[in-house]
Design brief:
- By secondary structure, the chain is of the alpha/beta class.
- The chain has a single domain, classed as Rossmann fold.
- The chain is 40% helix and 19% strand.
- It is built from six helices and five strands.
- A five-stranded parallel beta sheet has the order 3-2-1-4-5, with helices on both faces.
- The radius of gyration is 15 Å and the shape is globular.
- It starts with a strand and ends in a 5-residue tail after the last helix.
- 4'-phosphopantetheine binds next to strand 1 and helix 4.
């Protein structure tokens, strides 16, 4: 069984993430989406909230499961016997940081390959930070995130629409 991991902060999951997850699900037997701490960011949603949003958003993908982990991604991949870490690449601006993480993860766990999937053109610009900014300023986020989680995001900003 070929296991892949899709790691991220997913704060919250966007349509861009979801497309990468569903493409990974078509390539591997089992995909584990894992919410992790990004030590450079303070999350809006707690780990358990992010898991709940991801579970609802990926419910239509039978070989995808959702988990949370606090430690090193390389260790988690070893524990789960994963052969790949799948990440979406949007633009050159993502590349340097992602390349650095991929090299670090390979040093820590040479058994796992980092696989980059190029984001589709329609999701090039999309990020969780952008979604939060638009939501906080009263904008429409329905184009950016799965329909089943729109309400959860708006509620964080006191919007009951
Ligand atoms: O969605 P993000 O914020 O780009 O995801 C970054 C994430 C969570 C994948 C990265 O910060 C990570 O792997 N954190 C886990 C801790 C770890 O293994 N750090 C070393 C990675 S080189």
């Amino acid at each position: 069984m070929k296991v892949a991991i899709c790691p991220g902060s997913f704060d919250p999951v966007t349509n861009g993430h979801l497309q990468i997850i569903s493409r990974a699900a078509a390539m591997f037997d089992r995909v584990i989406v894992v919410t992790m701490a990004n030590h450079n960011k303070r999350p809006l949603f707690s780990a358990s909230e992010r898991i709940d949003l991801l579970r609802r958003a990926t419910a239509y993908l039978p070989n995808v499961e959702v988990d949370a982990y606090d430690g090193l991604l390389a260790e988690y991949a070893r524990e789960k016997k994963a052969i790949a870490i799948v990440k979406g690449l949007r633009a050159m601006s993502d590349f340097e940081y992602e390349f650095q993480m991929a090299l670090t993860n390979r040093k820590l766990n040479p058994a796992v390959e980092t696989v980059f999937l190029t984001t589709s053109a329609e999701h090039m610009y999309l990020s969780s930070s952008l979604v939060k900014q638009v939501a906080s300023l009263g904008g429409d986020i329905r184009e950016f995130v799965p329909a089943c989680i729109v309400k959860d995001i708006l509620e964080k900003y006191g919007r009951n629409e």
